[in-house]
Design brief:
The chain has 14 helices and 19 strands. With about 400 residues, the protein is α/β, with parallel strands linked by helices. The protein has an 8-stranded mixed beta sheet, sandwiched between helices. The chain has a 5-stranded parallel beta sheet with strand order 2-1-3-4-5, with helices on both faces. Strand 1, helix 1 and strand 2 form a beta-alpha-beta unit. Helix 4 packs across helix 7 and helix 9 packs across helix 14. The protein is elongated. The two termini are about 40 Å apart. About 0% of the residues have low confidence.
């Protein structure tokens, strides 16, 4: 995640009673690191697990615990705290707290401010402050029909449910009910704020290098880290798309809500793409696919000798060109990594393969790194993007592709 992805956002973080409250301390740190201003509201039970002092040190703000606290103007903390806030996130949300939300209870500060979230002003203008909850409880409490009824009612009321997850629980049992990890909650919150430019769309993305076997232990490959492809998969998922990521060998975590298909060689990637491309709305070919492979891989390790070694290479299939040539081809985005003459080669690739959009970059500007400088080429011309983290570039590229894909296609 790039620093500053929540810059300018103000989050009210509610912490109810539960052992998962210790995760909320780390969540507070991550929210602040992402650029958000965080106001923490502790319930009486929550304060028994983590003290207000801890959250005050991590957030840099006063921590609210008492509905009668007079520090707020006019003693209206239950109303003022959500004014101007971008979201209220309750993490952990205990079974008891969710039940009280359903019933509209207002017997402490956190439940009262959730009930008093601004919806529509006297002037009719909507000033919505979304409510998100991250459940955390024992698996039997989660599976109880009463809890499931409450969850369904909260969703119907427009509350966003983040989790829970399955796994080891503090009580020693294993099952559903664990609160999502702080990093996961941060990802969910970032995704929540992103415009859903690709809602209902299916996106297929290739990423990373390929490895072409010389023998059982040696391969021909390249320096691609896969970061741009993974950043694009993350951005597309945040934009509401159903994303499948066909990935060569990389050491990167799979983005939230993305299905990864692991492959190794160019032929593997070709087969995986052609098997899945039907019904896709967008195809984004980011992978640094090897142009050639050994004509025949040696079945045994090639032993070192003093003699020169010659390897016959044969061309790999051009996955992007093949997809773009399909009669019902999805909207195709190509990538061109060049060492020189970027405009000439990238625009030439777009025209030769009849692509609506190509993203070009010079390898010396970002191959394998976390930042990059890119230029988008389309029928309207050349669009240079300022150097930025790949996560930011990915959002800009996805927004550009979504705009072009939504436009009527010329015959």
């Amino acid at each position: 995640m790039a620093a500053g992805e929540l810059s300018g956002r103000r989050i009210v973080l509610g912490v109810s009673g539960g052992i998962a409250a210790y995760k909320s301390a780390e969540l507070t740190r991550l929210l602040v690191k992402a650029g958000a201003a965080v106001d923490v509201v502790l319930t009486e039970a929550g304060a028994r697990f983590v003290t207000p002092v801890t959250f005050q040190a991590l957030s840099g703000n006063y921590v609210w615990t008492d509905i009668w606290d007079a520090r707020r103007p006019a003693n209206m903390a239950h109303i003022d705290l959500t004014r101007g806030a971008d979201a209220v996130l309750v993490a952990p949300a205990s079974a008891d707290f969710m039940a009280r939300l359903v019933q509209g209870m207002a017997d402490d500060l956190l439940s009262t401010l959730c009930l008093a979230r601004p919806r529509a002003g006297m002037d009719g203008a909507v000033r919505d402050c979304p409510l998100l909850v991250a459940p955390a409880m024992n698996r039997q409490m989660w599976e109880n029909p009463a809890t499931q009824r409450n969850v369904a009612q909260l969703v119907e009321d427009g509350v966003s449910m983040l989790g829970p997850a399955a796994g080891d629980q503090a009580c020693g049992e294993i099952g559903m009910g664990r609160m999502l990890e702080p990093e996961e909650l941060l990802e969910e919150l970032v995704a929540f704020f992103e415009p859903k430019l690709l809602a209902g769309r299916r996106v297929l993305i290739t990423a990373g290098p390929t490895q072409e076997a010389l023998d059982p232990v040696r391969v021909i490959t390249n320096l691609s880290s896969g970061r741009m492809g993974y950043a694009l998969a993350r951005a597309a998922a945040q934009a509401g798309a159903d994303v499948t990521l066909v990935s060569g060998p990389v050491d990167l975590a799979v983005p939230r809500a993305v299905t990864r298909v692991a492959v190794r060689s160019a032929l593997d990637m070709h087969a995986a793409v052609m098997q899945r491309v039907r019904g896709q709305d967008l195809f984004i070919a980011v992978a640094a696919v090897a142009d050639y492979r050994p004509a025949a891989a040696n079945p045994h390790k090639i032993k070192k000798s003093g003699a020169p070694l010659s390897v016959e290479l044969t061309p790999n299939p051009d996955i992007l060109a093949e997809v773009a040539a399909l009669p019902d081809a999805p909207f195709c985005v190509g990538f061109a990594a060049e060492s020189r003459n970027l405009d000439e080669y990238a625009e030439g690739k777009r025209r030769a393969k009849k692509l609506p959009m190509v993203v070009g970059n010079l390898v010396q500007d970002g191959l394998g790194g976390s930042d990059n400088s890119v230029v988008i080429y389309d029928a309207e011309g050349r669009h240079a993007l300022a150097r930025a983290p790949k996560e930011q570039l990915a959002r800009d590229i996805i927004a550009h592709a979504a705009r072009l894909a939504a436009a009527p296609r010329s015959a």
